[in-house]
């Protein structure tokens, strides 16, 4: 069987797909991963066939815009970044349409793959890493700008989809659909679930399934995969960790180039609490300089290596960071900016695993106020231990690969 995986986004989107690709390849399948050229070396080092979707320069330009992290402007920015490469995604799938052993797996923005399915019969599964992309009228996810009771959130979502989301996507997609001889579509965030099947890489205890979720659908578990996890930790990082008490770990996201205020608040919070800290970012120009001896900057450390040695984790609320904190059993403070981050913050609070601080009100004092009770709470520590035990098998990738193989074995009409 050949699996064609494609995804758009930052490391939080690419790492799980690459982990899944390596799992499928280890089972003897032919696997290709299509994503931005920024990740080409990472994919090829893993021994997975790579196809580029956009240039590394495109990726760099996309993350440099502050709109990427704006709660209302982010969707239009992301779609504008994707629009030039969606046809490339379509062509990759179209070139394989004559093969009978091909299964495509894509994320919610895989519009090119979905059109290849609709026009050419290439079977496509949608893989969701986060529950926020599945709207439920029974239990709506938490999205920015949708406050109030359930009826109001549903009404606002319907209005936003009609007046904000569809006007961004439908002019381009429907013109393309007309070229392919397909009828127009609307309600983009309902259309992005493949009618062939949806795989949700998060457990039911994190996001219980709702009766109005798309079908057919299967839930597995968090992928929990990082490159370099099996390698020895960087010696400088190891020396810092061994030199004192467990530190607080801070990151605003791997693709966030606008984190200067976040790290200034992190440094101040460490001072107020008398705690050591680790600042994670691949963009060192964001880090205050000089750093005191009790705070360390690292460009990258696999979270499953670092967080078990931490006292708490302060981050943006991406699903990858959120699940890695749960695996490590450490309390977390989420500072959501956009995308699924508000919903993940809500779920973390409901599970008793941490707290949130609005990004617009972020200061060192507020971070310290959020962290101090979490670090002292026996109930938070117990809740963190409980979810860490749930995730200890780390079988999310295996279960997801099982689900894909089971789906591929079913007879289907092309």
How does this model look, in words?
The chain has 414 residues and is α/β, with parallel strands linked by helices. The chain has two domains: 2-224 and 395-408, Rossmann fold (3-Layer(aba) Sandwich), CATH 3.40.50.2000; 235-391, Rossmann fold (3-Layer(aba) Sandwich). It has helices at 11-26, 40-45, 56-64, 74-94, 111-120, 150-179, 188-191, 235-242, 260-273, 303-306, 319-328, 341-350, 364-376, 378-391, 396-408; strands at 2-6, 30-35, 49-52, 102-106, 124-128, 198-200, 217-219, 248-251, 277-280, 295-298, 312-315, 332-334, 354-356. The protein has a seven-stranded parallel beta sheet with strand order 3-2-1-4-5-6-7, with helices on both faces. It has a six-stranded parallel beta sheet with strand order 10-9-8-11-12-13, sandwiched between helices. β4 (102-106), α5 and β5 form a beta-alpha-beta unit. α1 crosses α15 and α4 (74-94) runs parallel beside α5 (111-120).
Largest sheet: 7 strands, parallel
Order of helices and strands: EHEHEHHEHEHHEEHEHEEHEHEHEHHH
Q: Mind telling me which CATH architecture of the largest domain this is?
A: 3-Layer(aba) Sandwich
Average predicted local confidence, pLDDT? 94
What would you report as the Rg, rounded to the nearest angstrom?
21 Å
Question: By CATH's scheme, which homologous superfamily of the largest domain applies?
Answer: Glycogen Phosphorylase B
Could you name the CATH topology of the largest domain? Answer: Rossmann fold
Classify the helix fraction into a percent range. Answer: 40-55%
The top-level CATH class of the largest domain is: Alpha Beta
- How many DSSP helices? 15
What is the 3D shape?
globular
User: What is the SS-derived class?
Assistant: alpha/beta
Gap between N and C termini, in Å?
16 Å
Number of strands: 13
In the sheet with the most strands, the strands line up as: 3-2-1-4-5-6-7
Report strand %: 5-15%
